[in-house]
Amino acid sequence: MWNPATGQQQASVALASAADVDHAVQTAARAFASWSQVSLSRRTKILFAFRELVNANAREIAEAIADEHGKVVSDAEGEVQRGLEVVEFACGISTLLKGEYSDQVSNDVDLYSFREPLGVVAGITPFNFPAMVPMWMFPIAIACGNTFVLKPSERDPSASMMLAELWAQAGLPEGVFNVVHGDKTAVDALLDHPQVAAISFVGSTPIAKYIYTRGTAAGKRVQALGGAKNHAIILPDANPTFAAEQLASAAFGSAGQRCMAISAAVAVGPIADVLVESVGRKAATVKVGPGRDRSSEMGPVVTREAKERISRLIDSGVAQGAHLAIDGRNLVVPGHPQGFFVGPTVIDRVTSSMDVYREEIFGPVLSLIRVQTLQQAIELINANPYGNGTAIFTSNGAAAREFQRGVKVGMIGINVPIPVPMAYYSFGGWKASLFGDLHVHGAEGVSFYTRAKVVTSRWPHNESVSATYHFPTGN
Questions:
Q1: Which of 143, 225, 259, 265 is labelled catalytic?
Q2: pLDDT confidence tier of residue 470, bands split at 50, 70 and 90
Q3: Count of domains in the chain?
Q4: Domain check: are 114 and 175 in the same one?
Q5: Using an 8 Å Cβ cutoff, are 138 and 152 in contact?
Q6: Is 91 an annotated catalytic residue?
Q7: Which residues form the domain of 128?
């Protein structure tokens, strides 16, 4: 495990074997027998206590994330806050789990439904949000009465361990929340384990497809969120200064290591030249440095390999005919010559055939594509295999409405560059950005972690009434 700002190894992580995973699942299975019967009131009290503990320790969690991921502390604190929103949503679980009731559907017959937890469920989460993404999963799963096994990224595992300790302090019974660190061995053990009922995953599209295929073949529910290539359309009537500020933040925040980062700006018509100049001017002023430095606006990328891959893709863009407006490849941060730093980079005149456009860069690189009409911009987005998030910058309501109805993307921002929904709405993309039919958190999260029972009930006054032999009806 490396410190991205210094380039030095700072710790080691013990990777779980298949036997270790089995032990965690068996522990969770034993805990499920009692936790699933705990009252909604008691679950809610524990969730409220957990919420207060996370809030009180948010700075400490954020600093651990900065040391292992590289993002600046203020950004990491924002990540913890977005995770807390899901905890707060789950605190209302008693309302979210309410069933339905229909009286007298037939003579002396009533019909009602309720939802039950699945059992042991697991989350496999990425390096880029080591606190937020797990907290998009386990609060709802646990509130619904499931027990949870978390397999976080081995690149930044400390946040998960801190959250586990806070759960224990909140009074969560032993075995309800479990953490296993590991690589593909641990992942496959979870996917194949017969006592794991469901898997939630966030990561790259190839791995998401693998998780979904192997998990569903083993009879599990799977929601697997994959990669992204998020576009922002800038129309000629947009405020170029406002758009440039928002694009720079969305492209370079967290060094571009967000599945909702804007990596492709689509300039429509004459605004392109002004936009390149404005974004370039903003990119040149971004303060890049260690995540612990309060003056830093952007930290390093997570590994040396990530830095090298990002640089290669920038190289390919230049080689394939794009214009490099701002070059961040050779950035050296004073005092941190071995750090994994890549500066904000702006590449103009990118086309859809270039590698820098086709691949998910996951770095602080903004590609600018030039088109002539809104319809061409929509067609460009729809032709892309990903459909996670997108945005439009305009002062024209009719154009915004045409855009939001025309793009085949799951999450849309109108003058909002990173349209991550609040916890009471679902998070998830379309096309190759999602495998499975249910999104993360919100009401769809409750549906994913529970299953319905429907009860048809009769208490006859005269137990000697004979049954008929035709198919039952509501008469």
A1: 259
A2: confident
A3: 2
A4: yes
A5: no
A6: no
A7: 2-226+433-455
